[in-house]
Amino acid sequence: MILSVRIVHCGDIHIGASGGEKRNAARRRAEIKQTFLRIVDFASENAADLLLIAGDLFDSHKIFEDVLEEISAKFAGFGGLVFISPGNHDYYGRDTFWEKVNFPPNVKIFKSASETVDLPQLGVKIFGSGFCGAFRNEHILSKFLADDDSINIAVLHGDMTPGSSHGPIDLAEIADSNMDYIALGHIHKRTEVAKSGGTYYAYCGCPEGQGFDETGAKGFYFGTVDKRSVNLEFVPICTRQFIEETIDISSAEQKFDIPDIILRKINGKYGAEGHNWYYKIALAGETALGINTSEIAAALSDRLYFAKVLNKTTAPVSNLRSIAEENTVRGIFVRKMLERYQKDPSELNKNALRTGLMAFSEEVGFNED
Predict the structure, then answer these.
(1) H helices then E strands: how many in the chain?
(2) Which end of the chain has fewer CB atoms < 10 Å from its terminal CB, N or C?
(3) Using CA atoms, how far apart are residues 139 and 123, in angstroms rounded to an integer?
(4) Long-range CB contacts (within 8 A, 24+) of 142-146
């Protein structure tokens, strides 16, 4: 009798997406695909029984045939079984690529709202649900009937946000499902493995971030699922991370010191590997130096893969008073804002003063964030 099953749980890979990358879009698309291929390699090397893909393996239905053939060949080389629940981005349809690719026999694609696959050789039942359109309002978990004598695993693309039209799920139905584990996709931010009633569940998150709203290490879950117990660990695998950092540059004596201060902070925190990542860097602290964010980003361009620099610094009070004495529009602005700030020293007025000074330096645009 088999007491546990080894799984890899991944999802939201979005093969075909470039993550908003314009400068190196083709390269980013290739990186995302290669990351998924490495996940399959990991599953093979670690003798996983099941590779569970909880939706949005592909970013859309506009996928090149050679990419689909490459993915299919990779699946064929995996010694375990692959279960795919199409998501809202790559939903199933008779006229979609899901029906045009000859996937190997170890791959099961869930093509309807509720399907069950019995794996007696593993003592496992897999419950799955595929999107058949970009939206789905129906609750699915109640359709699954757990087997007391099997390890019950569900693979779902869904959303726990109340009122969602992308496969709504709630804690009560998770508890009532009596699944041993529910492998969830759709939310790109990973959750810890949690429990509702007797059922364990988790969002694995995406293996590659798509922007600065998806920061930090990305990867998948790997481990074992037993009858009523789960032992999974997060495995980071992303090629590039999106990182937001606030860096105090108060110690800079000259403008050319600023890139060096930034790099010292990044090197100390992330090491050489961090040079390959995306950064949104907010400059903080007090400085009388004229900050040109474009020049700083250019100085970092040959040492960091991508850097967006924002100016959040403030001018020393002595410097502001000097500017306020100017017989210029800038001087009038600073005088008025200092008067307002003395009456109401709020962050709103502080930020208004800072943004106004940036505008006079032609460093703020309509999309400044």
Answers:
(1) 8, 15
(2) N
(3) 27
(4) 142/173, 142/176, 142/177, 143/113, 143/114, 144/114, 144/116, 144/177, 144/179, 145/116, 146/177, 146/178, 146/179
CB 92 within 8 A of CB 128: no
Specify the amino acid at residue 145. L
CA distances in angstroms from 321 to 313, 324, 339, 344, listed in the order given: 16, 5, 11, 18
Please report where in the chains the tokens 């995996």 appear, as a residue. Answer: 78
Give the sign of the dihedral formed by CA 314, CA 315, CA 320, CA 326: negative
Task: Give dist(CA 136, CA 92) in Å, integer.
Answer: 12
pLDDT recorded at residue 362: 54
User: pLDDT, tens digit, for every residue of 152-166?
Assistant: 999 999 999 999 999
Residue 311 three-state SS:
strand
Distance in angstroms (rounded) separating the CA atoms of residues 96 and 91: 8
pLDDT at 358: 73
156 closest CA partner among 172, 176, 179, 122: 179
Q: What is the model's pLDDT at position 350?
A: 81
For the chain, residues with pLDDT lower than 70 are 1-2, 317-318, 361-369
**Can you tell me the distance from the alpha carbon of 260 to that of 290, in angstroms, rounded to the nearest whole number?**
16
Nearest to 128 by CA among 96, 170, 84: 84
179-211 confidence digits (pLDDT tens)? 999 999 999 999 999 999 999 999 999 999 999
Count of positions (residues) in the chain: 369
Alpha helices (H) along the chain: 25-45, 65-76, 171-177, 257-270, 293-300, 317-324, 329-343, 347-360
Q: DSSP character for 135? A: -
Report residue 176 as tokens: 């009532």
Pairing of strands 124-128, 81-84: unpaired
Residue 182 in contact with residue 154, Cβ under 8 Å?
yes
Distances, alpha carbon 29 to alpha carbons 43, 95, 204, in Å = 22, 24, 21
By CB atoms closer than 10 A (0-12, 13-18, 19+), residue 294 is: exposed
